[in-house]
Specification:
alpha+beta, Jelly Rolls, 9-stranded antiparallel sheet, elongated
Length: 615
């Protein structure tokens, strides 16, 4: 009977295990759903709207196939459409029925003035010019490497990009902006296909199989024990075989006892072991979706959120985007520093930073041992404060620190329009004891304060002139009480340097020349971003001018060992005098109007900008 029950257990186990495996294989169904995106007309770009990407829940996988390099970039939908505003492209969206529809979007028309009287001959010439222009059209804009994208992927022949984008994001698919965009494009989503009884069936089948094996072993044991008496054997011969298993003096005597149980139990263990191993393997092959979820549904824990105003616009960049932009700026400027290429530097620098770099290239070309300016820092992005603005130009502030050198830098970068790269226009060293004001999180951003704001202690456009007056006049300046002069380490350094230059000049030209100093507002417009306490971080440009003039008609200003001024002016001496200009980039925290705080210096840098002969 035990054999019958063992066979029944084997059959039940086979059915259970087979049913469990079938649920995980032939009966499971597809694991993904794919939606193709097609368009008939050849256009250089394909824009996939966020609604298409979120047609089904879950992560998205984008696939595009074409010969050559394929690029896919994603960003905010508004930014994508702004970048494509002057180009023809295919747009994939969802219709009212939830189906994917693709249409061709034409570039926005450019308004041109029309003449009051139409001239047929002129119209014919214009038509000919239009045809000629079309033939000589410039290549399309390559989307690769744009600072507007949050991220991009580039592969050859077949592009597979895993995504997880919300509805406010879109994906741009293209090649190089000139060749037609890939026509074989699809988006796929995972399908949640659970088999909650596959695990119990497989494991239960393994247990039943183990029971069947046990019943089978018990049946064999019962049969062996229930055998009847055997016939007696023939008389043994006088000489008996030697039992080699016995040691010592009894060696050679045959033992008539029952066989040891060690071998029997070993055989049983050997029979059970495969069943246990198979069950364990089947158990480990079952993923969590192969089991029923009997526990309660977890309740999400509420977390503190930042309340944003209804009129708040999106931040200009994300932290990862800002980090990538800084790396691109640094690598481009490093190449320009090596080749002394001011044109290349201008592709990533602007304002005071570019002006100082250009002067340094000129000096390095004329002076052999002239040191380059420090490289653009990118090591550790500590603070990022982007402007919350959907239009252009856009700005963000960054603070980068270097733990090895124990230095920190503060900078402002701006993007002129949606097609331009971000350019670094302000760069300064942070004071060692600087405490930054409280700022909005990078995912919220800050508003840009207008230059003529009346809500700050000093308007940004007045700050440069006010600080220049404080440098020149000290306590006699009308702005002296507005600045935190006790924690200002830049102004004392300027005054000390002025005194040193004056002492050196007076050693040889006390009675024949005159050296004067003056600070004035620089030529670069200020940039200001608001802080949480309604104050602002303001970057301004200040010029420090040093003028050396002879005091009598017979005297001349000899430049001597002043290699910088000689290289910039191209003369050894001047009878009319020489003016040297230094460029100061200064960052301030300006409190709100009627605040008890004072304007605090955050960081500064100073480099020679120009030298000219007085005419």
């Amino acid at each position: 009977m035990r054999f019958v029950w063992a066979v029944v257990a084997f059959i039940i186990a086979a059915v259970m295990i087979g049913a469990g495996i079938a649920q995980r294989t032939v009966f499971q169904g597809p694991k993904t759903e794919t939606a193709p995106i097609s368009f008939e007309q050849d256009v250089p770009y394909l824009l996939i709207d966020g609604a298409v990407l979120n047609k089904l829940p879950g992560a998205q996988t984008l696939r595009a196939q074409a010969e050559g390099d394929i690029l896919a970039a994603y960003g905010r939908t508004a930014d994508m459409k702004a970048w494509l505003s002057d180009a023809e492209y295919a747009s994939a969206t969802l219709d009212d029925g939830g189906e994917i529809r693709t249409r061709i979007v034409e570039p926005a028309p450019i308004d041109e003035p029309t003449d009051a009287v139409a001239d047929p001959a002129a119209e014919g010439e214009a038509a000919g010019d239009t045809a000629a222009d079309a033939e000589a059209a410039e290549p399309g804009r390559n989307p690769a490497g744009s600072d507007l994208w949050l991220d991009e992927f580039q592969q050859s022949d077949l592009l597979i990009a895993p995504l997880q984008l919300p509805e406010g994001m879109s994906v741009l698919v293209a090649k190089d902006g000139t060749e037609p965009a890939p026509s074989k494009v699809s988006v796929s989503w995972p399908i949640e296909s659970t088999t909650p009884w596959a695990g119990p069936l497989i494991v239960g089948g393994g247990i039943v199989m183990a029971i069947g094996v046990l019943l089978y072993i018990l049946g064999i044991r019962h049969v062996r024990r229930s055998r009847g008496p055997r016939r007696k054997g023939l008389p043994l011969p006088p000489t008996e075989p030697i039992n080699l298993a016995i040691e010592g003096e009894d060696k050679g005597v045959i033992s008539a006892g029952a066989p040891t149980r060690r071998a029997v139990s070993g055989r049983r263990a050997f029979a059970i072991l495969p069943v246990v191993a198979v069950s364990a393997l089947m158990f480990t092959g079952c993923t969590p979706d192969a089991w029923p979820q009997l526990g309660p549904t977890p309740t999400p824990t509420p977390t503190q959120t930042v309340v944003m105003p209804d009129s708040q616009q999106a931040p200009a960049v994300t932290k990862a985007q800002a980090d990538r932009i800084l790396s691109r700026v640094s690598s481009t400027v490093a190449e320009a520093d090596e080749t002394l290429d001011a044109t290349l530097a201008a592709s990533r620098l602007d304002g005071a930073v570019l002006a100082e770099r250009t002067t340094n290239y000129k000096l390095r070309g004329a002076i052999t041992d002239r040191a380059p300016l420090p490289a653009i820092p990118t090591k550790s992005l500590e603070i990022i404060l982007p402007q919350a603005f959907d239009g252009w130009p856009r700005t963000f502030m960054a603070v980068v620190s270097d733990a090895d050198d124990k230095t920190a830098n503060i900078m402002m970068l701006s993007q002129a329009d949606q097609w331009s790269p971000y350019k670094l226009n302000y760069l300064a060293n942070l004071e060692a004891s600087t405490v930054m004001p409280e700022m909005a999180p990078h995912y919220v951003g800050a508003t840009q304060v207008p230059p003529d704001s009346e809500f700050l202690m000093l308007a940004p456009q007045e700050l440069s002139a006010a600080y220049a007056d404080v440098i020149d006049n000290g306590e006699k300046s009308e702005y002296w009480s507005l600045f935190d002069v006790e924690n200002d380490h830049f102004r004392p350094g300027v005054l000390e340097d002025r005194q040193r230059r004056l002492d050196d000049f007076n050693q040889t030209a006390t009675n024949t020349g005159n050296l004067t100093f003056k600070a004035a507002p620089g030529t670069v417009a200020p940039v200001a971003l608001a802080t949480l306490d309604s104050g602002a971080i303001v970057a301004v440009h200040v010029h420090e001018m040093e003028e050396a003039k002879p005091t009598n008609a017979d005297a001349v200003i000899k430049l001597g060992d002043n290699t910088e001024v000689k290289a910039l002016t191209g003369v050894e001496q001047s009878a009319s005098g020489v003016t040297t200009t230094f460029s100061d980039q200064v960052f301030f925290y300006v409190p709100v109007l009627d605040s008890d705080e004072k304007i605090q210096l955050l960081g500064y840098s100073s480099n020679i900008l120009d030298a000219k002969v007085i005419k």
